[in-house]
Amino acid sequence: MDFQTLRDNCPTWQDYIHHEFVNQLATGTLPKQSFQHYLKQDYLYLIHYTRVMALSVYKSDTLAQMRVGQAGINAMLDLEIGMYLEFCEQWDIPLEEVENTPESPATIAYTRYLLDAAMSGSLIELYAAIAPCLMGYGEIGQRLKAQGFVDNNPYQPWIDVFASEEFQQVTAQNEAFVNELFAGASPAQQPKLQKLFNTASRMEVNFWQMALDLS
To answer: In which pathway is this protein known to take part (predicted)?
Structure first.
């Protein structure tokens, strides 16, 4: 088993990658309020995601696996969370508002699902649950770059992050790591890994929809 197998057998993967939120983002037609709502909720999501990465260190069997988890924590705390706070500032969202925004039902459902998978399952199950997020944004960035950018898109800075060569390299490294983990899955484990992946992908779809609906 590998990431591609999970992806190809996920019924909602294309709904996630080609969601209307992403399409409107690419054309610059996404309502400002939807992007602002997304930024605030994704900041809250990333806080919990960092906790999941901390659990990945705890669940690791080898020093190399622990270092991957540590790198994920560092990337969240030192780079990505800060990047989202910068986006919030650029989109007229004060820090106090970001930090005091209630979690939406979609954010609660998704983050608690990941935390439950991380706490109750093995390392390989943890990575099956976070794989849609871990690799999906790279695929979205690659797709948007391939289809071409529109002029004067206010969302271009966000697109540029995930379409960048640096982010694509990180995504490839992450895929190689999870493939190494998934290769050790027994036939009996594979249905559970697929279920974890499928559910997380469905949660990603719901997260985009939440932003569109301002829910």
So the answer is: Cofactor biosynthesis; thiamine diphosphate biosynthesis
